[in-house]
Structures are given as C-alpha cells and as structure tokens.
Amino acid sequence: MKRNTENETISQKQLFSQASVSMLGLSLMAVPEFMRFSLKTMIFGLVLTGLFFWVQSIYFVRICPCYARLCTSFGNWVGKLFGFIYVSYLWFSQVVLLCLIADLANYYFIERIDKSWLILLTGIVCAIGMYQNVEKRGRIGEIILPVILFFILFMLFLAFRDFSFEEIIRESRRKMTLRELAEAFYKIVCLFLPVYFFPFILNQTKRNTSAKKSMNGSICLNLGILLLALFLLLGLLGREGYMHKKYPMIDLMSGVNLSGDFFQRSDLFWSGSLLFCLFYLCGSLFFYQHELLKRCRLERGTWIVYASVVLFSVFAGKLGFSFETYRTLVRYGYGIVFPVLILAAGIWYKRRKMGRREQIHEEDTDK
Fold first, then answer.
1. How far apart are CA 366 and CA 112, in angstroms?
2. What's the pLDDT tens digit per position in 313-322?
3. Contacts by 256-261 with C-beta closer than 8 Å and gap 24+?
4. Tens digit of pLDDT for each residue in 24-82?
5. Do the beta carbons of residue 243 and residue 72 sit within 8 Å?
6. Does residue 59 contact residue 215 with C-beta atoms inside 8 Å?
7. How many other CB atoms are found less than 10 A from the CB of residue 130?
8. What are the residues facing 10 on neighbouring strands?
9. In angstroms, rounded to a whole number, what is the distance separating the alpha carbons of residues 124 and 137?
10. Taking a C-beta distance cutoff of 8 angstroms, is the pair 302, 49 a contact?
11. Are 362 and 217 in contact (CB under 8 A)?
C-alpha cells in the first residue's frame, strides 16, 4: 500500500523536469507567434509573464487541495463542469499536437508515410502511457531533461558563430507602445496556459507547499529559451528573413553544421529534441486527461475521449479545423476562462472552508 502511494507522487525535481520538457516544445514552436513584436516589447512581455505566474504560483499552492477531488470540493455537477472545461482544452490541444507531430515527422524524418498513419501511431503510443503512474513520467522527465537541454543549448551556441548585432541595434530603436506590450503579454500567457493545470499536479507532489519554486523555475527556463530563440533569429536572419517562415527555428538550424563538416545533418539533434518534447507533451496531456476524468468520476469515458481525439486528428483538415481555429479558441476562450475558473475555485474553496469551521465551532459550542 505504501509503495502504491509513492507511485502516485513525484518529487519537486521531477515536477520541474516534467514541466520543463513538456513546455520546451511549445516555447520553440511558438516563435512565429511573436514575430511582429519588437525585441524590447518581447523582453518586457516575458518579464511580466514571469512575474504574473510567480504571483499565480502562490495562489495555486493555496487552492490545490480543492483540485484533488473536484466533485467533493465543488459538488457533483459543478465539479463535472469544471472537469469538462479543462478536459475540452486538453482535447483540442491533443488534436493540434498530433497533427503537428505528424507534420514535422513527415517533413523531416519519414517522408513517404501518410500523415494519418503517423497520427494513429503517435496516438497509440500516447494511449499506452496514459495508464502509467505519475512517478514513471516524472522519472522520464528527470532523465531526459539534461540531454534535451544539452542538444538545444549546444545547437544555439553553434548558431551564434555567425551572429550580427546590427539588426539587434536597429530593433532596440523601435518604440514600444502599451497596447503592443499588453498584446504580447497576453499571447505569452496563452502560450503557457498548461500552467493552469499545476493545481492538479501539486496534489501529487511531495511537499507541495514549497513546490512553487519548481513551477517558477520551469516557467523561467522556457521564457528564457524563447527569448534566446527570438534574439538569435533577429541576429542571424533579420526580421524580414524569418517573417514568412512556418518553422523558422528549424529552418535556421538546418544551416548549422559542426566544424569540419564531419556530421552533415547536425540539425537532426535540434529537430529530434523538439519532436521528443512535443511527443512528451502530447503523452502528458493524455495522461492528465485520464487523471482529470478520474477526479470527475467519469473514468469510464476515457477511451471514448481518446478515440475521438485520434479520429478527429486524422480528419481535422477535412473538417475545417486548423491551427488558426485552435488559436482563436485559446485567445478568445480558454485564455479568459482559465484565470476566472482559478479565481472562482479559490473563492468557493475559501467559503466552504469557513463554513466548515463555523459548523465545527457550533458543534463544539453545543457540546
């Protein structure tokens, strides 16, 4: 029994590793979203995002007990409604990730296989890992993070050899408006919306009251790498050089080679690391979707949800669902709903806690 309990918890180091690996792929793939903003705007936007999530982390730690059992904390129907909103976000995110992984794998690694088969294969592998315990996922993240970081930072270092500061100096002269800063800040927050699942994960973390350090560390790491990637693109390609590219960082790394040209495709380190991060994130979404359904007492519907994700991913293009659709859903839906839900959960939890204290006090008085 004790062993089973240990399998359901992760250390703070494993939390940091798991969150970092999951969000690294997001950070590097989201570069095109911030191309039109000046470097000055992005620096201030990233700093504001870091401060915003630092404040949120304190709040997450305080309210995480009410996320352990949603139906018990909020009542049966309200708890299921909460769970449905979170699961729906994971559902759309899984569809986008499966399509993105298939697109990258088809373009850079396996050219002659239909994307539908790649989506099915990825979905099957993620489904197998869906029933693993949280400790195994934490261990995988802990082992793989140093390797992934080494390859990413090593490739960034190689790319810096041809860096030019002329474009950076030109960018520093661009004026920053408050409206532009607010827009950049909101877009970065929307990119890191998975952070709003930390209250669920904190319940499975040892010494969760001090786990905010791990959470903030993973966010700062990803914000820093995103800034480094933007800085590098400006210095090497210039704004016009990468403005219309679909995957600018991958295209940039395709031109980076080791000295002596003894390894012609060194960009495979970058593409492979990026693909693994996206794959790990997709697996994590499947895993925590299963956890959420359990906490909403809807575990029986896990395979229905899983099958619908994979099938919709296969026919996403024909059904008119695209990355633009997902972006609209996040910016005008979940980006607003998640902060409101977190705030509402805190107010609800505090009232229930005070109500219980008053009830206990009345019972003690009657005795």
1. 77
2. 888 866 767 7
3. 256/155, 256/158, 256/159, 257/158, 258/158
4. 888 887 777 777 788 888 889 999 999 999 988 888 888 887 787 777 777 788 888 88
5. no
6. no
7. 18
8. 205
9. 17
10. no
11. no
